[in-house]
Design brief:
Order of helices and strands of chain B: HHHEEEHEEEEEEEEEEEEEEEEHHH
Number of helices of chain B: 7
Largest interface: A-B, 34 and 35 residues
Radius of gyration of chain B: 21 Å
Strand content of chain A: 25-35%
Helix content of chain A: 25-40%
Distance between the termini of chain B: 50 Å
Helix content of chain B: 10-25%
Oligomer: heterodimer
Chain lengths: 480, 415
């Protein structure tokens, strides 16, 4: 009885905390060339792909785990992880949704992503990634008509090698930092998107990530290419079961926008954050980087980070094309013992480039949150502008909020403005709301949502509602 | 460098009458320094200014031994006219004169502390170098309730008779309850390419007031590092103003610990740079208890291929409720080669605080120039007027009117 009650209580806190019993195939534990060959082999990859992986692994061997970040964590034993885990039923890939393992469908239903109905109702194309493999992609037909490619990256490697070969690793090279390089060596699946010239993608594309098996790291890789004059809006959501041990998630996301193209990338990250005492939870060490390669291109990152024991990521924009635009909107909420070190990098290389950073951080409980960002205007980036605003809200005196911006200006014709504030919810605001009949928790929810509004507005409708709710849930129990 | 350090160290120890224990400590510091070397860009605090590289490129090999036995002639022409003041004169790193002629002798005590070793938190290998090679260290104690009638000017002079390539200085100040001190550091360098390594430690007791103005105005080829550690008790006030302009390279670090309630710290700075100068200010304000306040304003005007760096950190301890922290840095880049880097940082562990920072950099505002030119000023005049106004803002923050005027005259800023 006690155990059951405990389980129910736990589930109340994190409703995605269940795990699914599905038979899975795993690569042998540990990290070595054989495991990489195993992954490459099981995915029937061409030789150049294996070469790419091995090159990354060579580099990985000489790299050291970075330790400059604020949230410290116990050393990860990279030999004690499974680098590949796939539901057994996926070995011979199902051709359509009907052939999917019912248990998998059930799982996604629990997550609020009924793949079958979703296809008809919401008009969002979904690619679902379970542990290491992509299990289903909806709406394929309609997209294909327009020439849009939206499929698991492992499929793209088979069917569109020319695109993958050209762009994979062009923004995050195999010689990048520790976790990115690890990903390059062992990535298993992820989404691939190609929007052809002049096409405006008619629907939101969405990927849903789920870590199920224990002791596995999830290393997915997403590659989005927007050809000249195209537009795409891409959503990403993540959950994981509740487990006592920490799990590693080290994804790489590469965006490439050619002339006049626009990519909008939204994330609602709700990995399991660990329990109230900080036990368990996901280590979310993700590398996201966008390259505005062409003229007048635009990349916009929006993120709502509420989950993970440790979030450590800096979605960045390299503004290479003249007149290109980079945007970063972020809400990060940490509660209990969560830690977040997140922000962005805006590298201005082209003329007349513009970037905007709006970051809202909320920390409660004994959590710690850091905004860390870089704005770098190179000497050639004439007439560029950047505007940065970082606001932090603290709830309680056990949490921390930190701001560490790096600002480099090497061009006299460019302007940079940076503002940051840290404060708490004012008594007057709380009093006002409560006077009008809201209980303290609702009042805080309302005020926090107002505080985040600038960012929430950037999210696509369906996500905005979910995010707003998440903001409320994440802060539950932090008032008083 | 190691052999040189060892050799020069042995030479300087010979001339000092130190106990075996003190020698051991100095040796320990030397070994630390040999181990770590000069700070380089791999260290976060030196990310924007790689001192190791800068010394290598500008000076080359350093030497460290200074013969402290021979005295230097005090050149009175460097003294400031028109302002009555007390003096401490350093020539080539050697204290030549301490003169409190305007003060009551029994209210100020000068204590020889040469044997004590500085241990600063937030410090780096340069404090080890300083500890190993400082020759004499005095502590200036201002006694309870005494407020100095006249400001104290410390002259840092170097000339061509300098012995080595490196000078290490250290001074300690203690301001007892209700006392006050106005202190000006004036740099006057006539030597070629030396590395100056200066450590000050200030201890401010209840209600004490310290005003420290650092003026590095005259063109010189030296490389300077100055570290101020300020510990502040209840109700004390520290005001630091830095004019960073003359040296080839300069880095000023202010580490301020607000230990007592209602203590406040002000750090204001002006960078006015040309050629390929490279200057930095790094400030760390530690709010360690409740109801403390800090205010920082840094403005830069950068011409030619100069480079300015501002790293400011506001740290708020979880006990430090009701903290008020503010920080603003602004830069005007006059030339396309100029560069401004900033890292304004907040680290906050208390929730009932008001902390903010801002940073902006860019060119002179075209509209403002147009406005002035449409009223008959030449381009050059408009530009000067705008820069003047931009910097005046910081100089106006100086609370001592006598010294404010002195500094205004020195840098030629008009009201």
């Amino acid at each position: 009885m006690d155990n059951r009650q405990k389980e129910i209580n736990n589930l109340k806190d994190y409703k995605y905390g269940f795990s699914t019993d599905i038979e899975s195939i795993k690569a042998p534990k540990g990290l070595n060339e054989d495991v990489i060959k195993f992954i490459s082999n099981i995915k029937k990859e061409p030789a150049w792909m294996l070469e790419f992986r091995l090159k990354a692994f060579e580099r990985f061997k000489v790299l050291k785990e970075p330790n400059w970040q604020k949230p410290k964590f116990p050393k990860i034993d990279y030999q004690d992880l499974y680098y590949y885990s796939a539901p057994k039923s996926m070995k011979d890939k199902p051709k359509s949704l009907d052939e999917l393992d019912p248990k998998l469908l059930e799982t996604y239903k629990k997550l609020g992503i009924p793949l079958q109905e979703q296809a008809r109702l919401n008009g969002i194309a979904v690619d679902a990634v379970f542990d290491s493999v992509s299990v289903a992609t909806t709406f394929k037909d309609e997209l294909t008509k327009q020439g849009i490619i939206f499929c698991p990256i492992s499929e793209a490697i088979q069917n569109h090698p020319e695109l993958v070969k050209k762009y994979l690793g062009s923004v995050i090279p195999t010689s990048d930092h520790f976790f990115a390089t690890l990903n390059s060596a062992v990535f298993t699946d992820g989404s691939f998107v190609y929007i052809p010239e002049g096409v405006r993608c008619p629907m939101e594309l969405s990927t849903y990530f789920r870590i199920n098996a224990s002791n596995t790291g999830q290393f997915e890789r997403t590659l989005i290419i927007a050809d000249k004059g195209s537009y795409v809006s891409y959503l990403e959501g993540c959950t994981a079961p509740m487990r006592d041990e920490n799990q590693l998630h080290a994804a790489n996301v590469e965006l490439i926008a050619l002339d006049d193209a626009e990519i909008k990338y939204s994330t609602v990250q709700n990995w399991y954050p660990g329990d109230k005492d900080g036990k368990g939870g996901i280590y979310n060490f993700v590398t996201k980087r966008g390259l505005c390669k062409g003229k007048n291109s635009k990349i916009s990152w929006t993120q709502v980070e509420t989950g993970s024991a440790i979030t450590w990521k800096y979605p960045s924009c390299i503004l290479k094309g003249d007149n290109s635009v980079g945007e970063f909107y972020s809400i990060a909420i940490t509660n209990n013992h969560q830690k977040a070190d997140t922000g962005t990098k805006m590298i201005h290389l082209g003329k007349n480039t513009k970037s905007k950073i709006i970051s809202k951080g909320i920390s409660a409980g004994s959590s710690d949150m850091t905004y860390r960002g870089l704005v770098d205007i190179s000497s050639k980036a004439k007439n560029s502008t950047n505007y940065t605003q970082c606001d932090s809200l603290l709830m309680g005196n056990k949490c921390g909020a930190h701001t560490v911006p790096y600002i480099k200006n090497k061009n006299s014709e460019s302007n940079i403005a940076h503002e940051a504030t840290t404060s708490k919810i004012s008594e007057e605001q709380l009093h006002y709301c409560q006077q009008r009949g809201l209980n303290p928790e609702e009042a805080v929810g309302l005020i926090v949502n107002g505080f985040c509004k600038e960012v929430l507005q950037q999210l696509p409708m369906e996500f905005a509602v979910e995010a707003q709710k998440l903001v409320g849930i994440s802060l539950e129990g932090s008032v008083g | 460098m190691k052999e040189q350090l060892q050799k020069d160290f042995d030479n300087s120890i010979k001339n000092l009458s130190l106990s075996q224990k003190d020698i051991e400590i100095k040796k320990f510091c030397l070994d630390n320094f040999i181990d770590k070397g000069f700070p380089n860009r791999k260290e976060e605090d030196w990310k924007f200014s790689d001192l190791n590289q800068i010394i290598k490129n500008n000076i080359g090999e350093l030497s460290f031994y200074n013969d402290q036995a021979s005295t230097n002639k005090v050149d009175t022409s460097v003294f400031v006219d028109g302002l009555e003041h007390n003096k401490i004169v350093f020539i080539n790193g050697r204290i030549e004169k301490i003169d409190f002629e305007y003060e009551k002798k029994d209210q100020i005590e000068i204590i020889d502390q040469s044997e004590t070793i500085n241990e600063f938190k937030n410090s780096n290998s340069l404090s080890d170098l300083n500890n190993a090679f400082t020759y004499k260290c005095f502590k200036i104690l201002v006694k309870k309730g005494y407020q100095l009638a006249k400001p104290l000017i410390i002259y840092h002079t170097t000339n061509s008779k300098i012995w080595s390539k490196n000078i290490n200085l250290r001074l300690n100040f203690e301001l007892d309850k209700n006392s006050s001190l106005r202190l000006i550091d004036l740099f006057n360098d006539a030597s070629e390419k030396n590395f100056l390594n200066i450590f000050y430690n200030f201890e401010l007791k209840e209600n004490a007031v310290l005003k420290n103005y650092k003026v590095d105005k005259f063109e010189n080829k030296n490389i300077k590092y100055a570290f101020n550690n300020i510990d502040q008790d209840k109700n004390s006030i520290s005001e630091t103003f830095i004019l960073s302009s003359g040296s080839n390279f300069s880095k000023n670090e202010i580490n301020c610990n607000l230990n007592g309630v209602y203590a406040s710290a002000f750090v204001n700075g002006v960078f006015s740079l040309n050629n390929d100068k490279h200057h930095e200010i790094r400030s760390i304000i530690n709010h360690l208890t409740e109801n403390t306040k800090s205010y920082q304003l840094i403005k830069s005007v950068l011409d030619e291929s100069s480079k300015a760096v501002y790293q400011g950190k506001i740290f708020v301890n979880s006990d430090a409720q009701k903290t008020d922290g503010y920080q603003l840095s602004k830069a005007i880049l006059l030339n396309k080669e100029a560069e401004f880097n900033a890292k304004p940082e907040l680290e906050i562990y208390a929730d009932d605080v008001k902390c903010s920072h801002g940073s902006a950099s860019g060119s002179l505002n075209d509209d403002s120039i147009f406005y002035l030119m449409s009223r008959g000023l030449s381009y050059q005049q408009s530009r000067e007027l705008l820069i003047n106004g931009f910097l005046l803002d910081v100089v106006e923050k100086i609370t001592d009117s006598e010294i404010k005027n002195l500094i205004k005259n020195m840098i030629g800023i008009k009201e």
